[in-house]
Amino acid sequence: MKVPPPLGNRWLKILNGFEDTHVMIFIGFGFLMTFLKRYSYSALGFNWLLAALVVQWAIVCQQFYEMKNYEIFINKKTLLEADIMSATVLITFGALLGVASGVQLLFIAVVEVAVACANMYLVNDVFKATDVGGSIAIHTFGAYFGLGVSLALRSKKGDSDTGNGQAAHVADLAGPSYASDVTAMIGSIFLWIYWPSFNSGLADTPEGYQRAVINTYLSLAASTVTSFVLSALVSKHEGRFDMVHVQNSTLAGGVAVGSVCNLYTGPGGALAVGIGAGIISPRLAKFGILDTCGVNNLHGMPGVYSGLLSILFAGLATEENYGDGLHKIFKAMDPAEYTPARTAGGQALYQLAALVVTLVLSFGSGLITGFITKLPIFDRLKESEKYDDEVNWELP
Amino acid sequence: MKVPPPLGNRWLKILNGFEDTHVMIFIGFGFLMTFLKRYSYSALGFNWLLAALVVQWAIVCQQFYEMKNYEIFINKKTLLEADIMSATVLITFGALLGVASGVQLLFIAVVEVAVACANMYLVNDVFKATDVGGSIAIHTFGAYFGLGVSLALRSKKGDSDTGNGQAAHVADLAGPSYASDVTAMIGSIFLWIYWPSFNSGLADTPEGYQRAVINTYLSLAASTVTSFVLSALVSKHEGRFDMVHVQNSTLAGGVAVGSVCNLYTGPGGALAVGIGAGIISPRLAKFGILDTCGVNNLHGMPGVYSGLLSILFAGLATEENYGDGLHKIFKAMDPAEYTPARTAGGQALYQLAALVVTLVLSFGSGLITGFITKLPIFDRLKESEKYDDEVNWELP
Amino acid sequence: MKVPPPLGNRWLKILNGFEDTHVMIFIGFGFLMTFLKRYSYSALGFNWLLAALVVQWAIVCQQFYEMKNYEIFINKKTLLEADIMSATVLITFGALLGVASGVQLLFIAVVEVAVACANMYLVNDVFKATDVGGSIAIHTFGAYFGLGVSLALRSKKGDSDTGNGQAAHVADLAGPSYASDVTAMIGSIFLWIYWPSFNSGLADTPEGYQRAVINTYLSLAASTVTSFVLSALVSKHEGRFDMVHVQNSTLAGGVAVGSVCNLYTGPGGALAVGIGAGIISPRLAKFGILDTCGVNNLHGMPGVYSGLLSILFAGLATEENYGDGLHKIFKAMDPAEYTPARTAGGQALYQLAALVVTLVLSFGSGLITGFITKLPIFDRLKESEKYDDEVNWELP
């Protein structure tokens, strides 16, 4: 591995992306997952351990496809990409929070990063799809990989080792306390605050960077207001808010706008995207698959929605709107580089391909990984050990 | 609404203002208000909802006076201004914490932003007063609007629906717990940390920007040391600190220096401003008006103090000190643009006008808004429902 | 004191160093020290008070050696240096957490900054040692000054005023609660996140800046994974993590790489440094000296380790590796400025001198300061008052 001379001015200027994303990964995801009453140490600890491991492993995996002479080059952009990749694993961790052991999580992380980097190579370099905020390659991938693992881990009926008393104990631990919901808000709000930096961090042009910041900000603001209103309408006691919605659906606007935030959506479009996200995200129905943090609602469905939006806005892209920037954002539409250059419609089809491939690859590889972690060589949690820090920590 | 091409380099460089202010609004104000023992969900939730609503509404209101062809232009500076405007509403929320219902708060926010944007137009564009950190147009306005509402909402004697037992219950909830005072410190310290970014975010020249950062930092450091010393002197048990002072008066230095931080105060002047703020801020006497967070002490009086300082330093401004920057900071003193150009004394008078108009407009419109929210169509809290998350949230 | 015109572009660009370090000092150190169950107010409050005092005092002390005509110049770099200096005092505070009174702490802070600034002048200006992240002049100094004070404050046998019941009470307060360990993680993770900004903030060249960010990031990631693994191996129940390791040893990689992060360590070298830090840091053995936060393990030993590494990498420095940057980093090796210019080996010797002088000066002056604070004019804590907020705060 080598440290090359710095990229020019641009990366020094739009430097914030790295530091801000860093806060999202380690504080944001970490504290958001402290909502369980007796799993805060594990949420924070595994979040930290997994992310610190993944940033190292992702540097290797992400550059696998670009290596020359077996050398890896690292600059600040590399670190930002590694931080972003670790989000994928942390989303998956959210689906499995409290039900997977440390050894299982480490194995899952290592496999997932390898597959996710391959998928990202397909999305960005083969399909040349636009996905600046990673809603397809990060959020959708992480969520459906996690649900694949979760489906594989599902206990068969009669598999439980718990009596009624223990079942009640586990059900109790699977919920929040007043204090744990407050610490979860630290994570949720920091994720919300820096989401514009996350989505814009890898933008290729200053105009695209500014659009990404503005559209993400507007979409988040709209999804937040929508989520609060909807929460008051659908919660058990009418007119009261539900922390599950407030901690999660507020953020859906950031995911939903991710793939299109650097495109010409217009501010009205960004607000509409956010309102849509606020509507589809609150966790009303549940599938049969265990999903502790509701990553399907926060990352999965909004990610797919963002992928669909990217098909729409790619299809609408014209040189009139984007000027010079068109070929920087949609590289395969540049006739100087690719012959024949894609049309807007062609680009839209490739966006669709990126979304479908991501869905299939993530869920499939998650399912296989999940089955592997059921092998006897892996440490598995008993029912009575779920959602409990006791298993993993020296407690005071 | 349209997204224009980016402002030049300057706004990319002094970008931090936006991200840092964002942290202050959503983490800073939100967590500072979690100090009540049973109102943390509401503090964080309403803070988030109100701010997310206001940033959208403020974009419209702030640009109302500059619109051409009914089009609104948005860039990163627009977002920063919207974030700053939401501070006004959150200051008002602080005065009413625990005693206003969600519906009342939403109505108050919508009205307040419209009036505050009109007032800001008067201060900045009509009076051409200098107020880079918003101590006049944001802090003073938000505090006295809130006290106006609070005065209007004051229960008449005998209006209470509580027996003695319930009154004790409400009085108990109106205070902090050990844990809630710790989470409040998250907010207080983040506000403190990023205050230099808040005050300098809209500075017009690089020199003014750097002066704003340095003066704010020095003033905050001085007000913090002063607050601790004073707290130890005046608290119930001599020599002990009081969290009310520590969470609030420490910040008064940031408000007090706000209107003058980009001016030539000199470091000694900035320290003196901070010491003064630390002396006037600790909440010793209370008026008859309910003010849950003590916004009069943190934002009101220090804001007026800052306005008075701006009269002083405007009166002292000379070309010798400011060089080219003089006419960028005091635009009406530029003979190339305004005939006849203002003298320093004339500018001082306009600073006074800005302060007086802000005080009258904020308190008056707050009072009227308060009376409107007492109309039967608004949901009002009973005495027994005050300071209690139970009313607004599904609790674990 | 005067505010000069701004430094050129560079300091506006690499501005993050200031804001990010600010978060580390006030949130990072503050919350990390809330791990004691009944000392959170004091940890946060004294951290804030001491740092706010020190940033003012450090501006004076640091510029004492550069003053012309008794004038002090302040720019953003000055503020960053003052923030960094306050870390020294907060590290010392960590060693004494819960056992020193407020008056003692204030006296210690004032003396320590004066001596630490003299030591920094020796390290940077006399020895011209490289120490960009301050592992020698900040971390090593702060830790061994603190241990010097702690040794002096050690109670003689039979000095205790507590009966058995009280001793048990004090021992109980000297540990964490579940909630206090969670709030401590806020501090620990924010320190971790912004460490690359801390270490790179004062880098002299863009290349050195980027190397400092990357090497610090890699070293931290490596020390984190190593710390978790080691914690699971050595904790009381095998396979469980211990919060003491997780909150502290994870950070040791940042200290360990501090003095060399802007040098050519290569990414592999940075990872190795971090792994080494993760191995030496977990608090396995304790000396007889009281050290509440374990600053010897987090700052002391990793700081010495970093100083030793700086001897190694200075000795290996060649013009081939560094190009033009060589003489900016190792100023005394520049023949245009110093005759005779140092060789790499000579520079290595001066690195050693810087480390040894820092160790002797910090421990010695700490010991003397500690003995002075035992004089009757200082307020001292009784055994029964240790680790207890009650002494210093109005509690709810």
From TrEMBL, chains A, B, C:
Tell me yes or no: is Membrane among this UniProt entry's keywords.
yes
Q: Record's superkingdom?
A: Eukaryota
What's a single GO CC term here? Answer: plasma membrane
Q: Where in the cell is it found?
A: Membrane
Main localization of the protein described in the UniProt heading: membrane
Gene Ontology MF terms: ammonium channel activity
Task: Tell me the ranges covered by the Ammonium transporter AmtB-like domain, including all copies.
Answer: 17-386
Q: Name one Pfam family in it.
A: Ammonium_transp
Topology relative to the lipid bilayer, per the entry, is: Multi-pass membrane protein
Family stated for the protein in its record = Belongs to the ammonium transporter (TC 2.A.49) family. Rh subfamily.
Q: What is this protein called?
A: Ammonium transporter Rh type B
What lineage is this protein's organism placed in?
Answer: Eukaryota, Metazoa, Ecdysozoa, Arthropoda, Hexapoda
Its gene name is rhbg
